[in-house]
Amino acid sequence: MLAALIVIVVLGLGLPIGLWLISRWRMSKPQTAYRGDRYDEIDQWLISEFNLGWRSRSRVRTAVLGRQFAARLEPSGRDNDPAPLEPALLEPARALAVRVLANQIGQLRWSRRTGWVTLGLTVVYVGYGIFALTTGQAIGVFILLNAAASAGLGLSSAVLAPRRIRRDAERLLSGDRAPGAQPRPR
Questions:
Q1: Is residue 153 part of a domain?
Q2: Structural domains in the chain (count)
Q3: Are 64 and 93 in contact (CB under 8 A)?
Q4: Helix, strand, or coil here: 174?
Q5: What pTM, to 2 d.p., does this model score?
Q6: DSSP-assigned beta bridge partners for residue 64
Q7: I want to staple 118 with a disulfide (CB 3.0 to 4.6 A). Which of 71, 81, 94, 154 is the partner?
Q8: Which domain holds residue 152?
């Protein structure tokens, strides 16, 4: 009984206080890149190959990869503008598009794999939801709703987003549309 009380006190007090301290520590560190204080693979490559600043890297990423893999906001808090790239950024954008088409960006491969895992879990959710409904448990409805949401997310990550990114990279290389502009309606 005493051990259970100690566990409750440690989890009830220690966990929130510890998480608060960790969050305060992380907020005190300067935010210098997309992911806290480190650069991701695409940023490192754009810096080493083309020596681009944050704004230029963000514009190249948005032109090639779209908004899903680009920075959402500028440091000032405004949305990135969808204006076409300057001529100086065309070469880095085309080089990044070549890397996308050659499947050399691990971040995109990882996103695709997690999408397939999510689709696999959707099958598990559906099976468990149907089992719960057949045994008379109302929670089965919520499990099936979760399966529907997981299916949409998995389909987007595994199939739709990689197809769109690949198509936009091919268009950028072929000169079919201006980088950063909206795609033409079909």
A1: yes
A2: 1
A3: yes
A4: helix
A5: 0.62
A6: none
A7: 154
A8: 108-174
* Beta strands, E only, the chain: none
Residues 71-86: tens digit of each pLDDT = 443 444 444 445 677 8
Is residue 136 situated within a structural domain? yes
Q: Is 2 contained in some domain?
A: no
> Residue 65, Cα to own-chain centre: how many angstroms?
11
Rounded to the nearest 10°, the torsion over CA 139, 144, 145, 148 is: 170
Contact 157, 115 (CB under 8 A): yes
Q: Evaluate whether 84 touches 181 at the Cβ level (below 8 Å).
A: yes
Nearest to 92 by CA among 124, 46, 41: 46
Give the pair of three-digit tokens for residue 103. 């499947």
pLDDT bracket for residue 121 (50, 70, 90): very high
Which residues are within 8 A (CB) of 174 and not within 5 positions of it... i.e. 6 or more apart? none
- Measured between alpha carbons, how far is 113 from 33 in angstroms, rounded to an integer? 25
Residue 33 CB neighbours (<10 A): 16
Residue 167 lies in a domain: yes
